Amino acid sequence: MTTWLSEIPESPAIYMFQDLDGMALYIGASTNVRKRIISHLQSFSRGENTDALQNYVHENGRAFEIHILKVCSSVELEMLETEYINLYKPRLNQRIP
Fold first, then answer.
1. How many CA atoms lie less than 13 Å away from 70 in the CB half-sphere?
2. Distance CA 34, CA 7 (A)
3. Domain CATH number, residue 40
4. Does the reported pTM lie above 0.70?
């Protein structure tokens, strides 16, 4: 496993993919953020286009950064994910009312 991947916690977290211009691409939540990020990266390397994030990376060939906010409970996950999506308005998330 790549060194920086091993530093990602295996705990509930909100994560954000951001392009190198600082624009939010995608915000997600997972009960095991390391597994979820690895899943995203594996699908990129296989060239899969199964969702908006994979399609964007595949079509644009753009680099990105991953930011992680560790949280404590599944209740916080849902609340914070919605809050961050509404705040950052990532282009690849569906809008949440």
1. 6
2. 8
3. 3.40.1440.10
4. yes
